[in-house]
Amino acid sequence: MCKDGIMLSRRAERNLPPITVAMTGASGSVYGLRLVECLLEAGRRVDLTFTLAAESVLEQECGLEWREEDPELRRTIEEYFSDDDNLRHYSRMDWMAPMASGSSVKRPMVVCPCSMGTLAAIAHGLADNLIERAADVAIKEQRPLIVVPRETPLSQIHLENMLKLAQMGVTILPAMPGFYNKPAQVEEMVDFVVARILDRLGVEHQLVDRWGE
User: Fold this and answer.
1) Which residues form the Flavoprotein domain (predicted)?
2) What is the pLDDT of residue 4?
């Protein structure tokens, strides 16, 4: 087990499909970063993509200047996560990326954090970038799709879009940390949400104590 509580089994995980992690312009980019970190620590391959708005949020909230026009972006991301083997970044307009087609290997997808704009686009079958197209593929191919909305308050439009996706089999997993484990710092609140995502993905972890244990 690594220091962050992720069960390491890299050899056994190598044959599993990559997990697509998409970050959008909603507040809460730390959830997406932590999710990628935990997946990599668990030996899972990760395909990362993010929207233009996510670039601004990453800079404002985390001080990361990740710009797709930067020719060194891939190296920058690999250095941030200390992984140049299991991590791949795809441009938001890369229509040749594997997750953009139903003929690619079956892979789970997580949109974390998920803005209300991206959620609406997914709910209504719009596909103007790789994230929306990949989510569309996940739905039509009946692949695991998890969206992690981070917004408050929620309007009727937001709720209707979430219900629409839930009825299609999409997992709606809001970034709502619990407090029964008495978190003492922000990182523990982040891990609470990330742990729930990992549970849905079937990735073993020990980020939080199990209820009743």
Assistant:
1) 19-201
2) 54
Structure tokens at 134: 């990949």
Give Cβ neighbours of residue 4 (< 8 Å, ≥ 6 apart).
Answer: 37, 38, 41, 207
Q: How far is CA 113 from CA 144, 146, 175, 202, 209, in A?
A: 16, 10, 8, 19, 23
Report the binding-site residues for FMN. Answer: 25-27, 51, 115-118, 150
What domains can be seen in the chain, in order of their start residue? Answer: 10-201 (3.40.50.1950)
- The pLDDT assigned to 7 comes to 46
Residues annotated within a binding site: 25-27, 51, 115-118, 150, 180, 196
CB 118 within 8 Å of CB 24: yes
